[in-house]
Design a protein that fits this description.
mainly alpha; 434 Repressor (Amino-terminal Domain)
Amino acid sequence: MEIRLKDVRESRNVSQKDVAQHIGVSQQFISRVERGTKDMSFSLATEIADYLNVSLDELAGRQKPEINPKTES
């Protein structure tokens, strides 16, 4: 899964250090997550999403699914 942490974080003018301090990890951990060399737990992702005021879907780079009209039989 592609994590869009860097894009979201930078769009809100928040540093890696700020995110790291808020969730209790090192700045290096955040850097590794952004580079895709480290995975993070669901609970950390939730904390980051809350801190950055975004949904987990947005943080994960997911887009809203298209709504398909119901077909009649």
